[in-house]
Amino acid sequence: MEPIRGDALRGHLETMALATLELGEAHGFEILRRLDEAGCGALRLKEGSLYPALYRLEKASLIQSAWEHGPDDRRGPRRRIYRLTRKGRRHLAAGRVEWRHFVNVIGGILGATS
Amino acid sequence: MKELMVQVERAVRPVRASSRRKDRMREELLTHLTGLYEEERGRLGDGAAALAQAVQRFGDPAELTRDLQASVSREEVAAFHFERWLGWRAPESAARYTLRLAVQIYFLVTVLSLIVIAAVVAISGLGVDLPARLRLAASFGIIASADVFILGLLYFKMRDRLCGSLCVRRSWPRAAGLGLLAALAVQASGVAFTLLGISSVETSLDLFFLWWPGVVFTPLWFTLYGLTCGPREIRHTEWACLDIGN
Questions:
Q1: Those residues with Cβ within 8 angstroms of residue B218's Cβ, 6 or more apart along the chain or in another chain
Q2: Tell me, what's the ipTM?
């Protein structure tokens, strides 16, 4: 199976990020790990592009974030932890309904639905 | 690691957002890129190859800049323009920045003073005290801009002594000395204002203690502000002055 690259994912990344945060709060690296795991390694995403998507979600109040309070001896820059808001959960539920509808309609046209 | 910082800065520097917002982007993206680099180094065992692979996984900086810009609100863009006007612009020195700010403040105060005086004249008519009012406004403009220059410069030097920066070693005694100079500058500017504005040595001496709250508060404020915001400001300077090539 061909990997799914960034262009095909454009427009879906934000909803996918919301779905990973439904599993619990996480920093950017962890969100990508969850996406990779859920996509069985088929997603080929330029990893930097996750952050603008997270900033857009935060601007829309769908997620919240805070700097991680790590141990004082932790090396390197800090990590920012993201978590889903109530509005984000509602948005995710609506996104799932919309996606099923999209798959049914386009799948029907392509003759790809069972 | 400097190469990783350069990659991040190539993406973040062109973004039109407030310095605070950009510092957050820098720190977060650097954390991620560092994680990628460490992961690749563990896998490949070679630093140069790991760096190339991490950068490839991270994505094209120009594309990332466009995406980051699209995530910035209009308020942030407005803050960016405001900071470009009144804030520090890399890589100017503290002296050049405070001098530029002092000139801007001088013009701002002069224009505002003229508006206020014109309004007073329009309401009360030309009175005998108009020259005195003009003189007071002119003195205020001169002293305010001189204060911005001198106190601004003293703040930056004090902050660097309190927090330590790339070229300045941390030193509490020197910071205290600079705080004392700031207190003296406040007292001197208070006396100079009354001398220039009212031209009376007697009044100037009568008002000598009027400036003491400022004399005490200024070094305390510099210390508190420097200790709280200084590390972020210094980090921002390091990022903004980073050589990222063309």
A1: B151, B182, B183, B185, B186
A2: 0.83
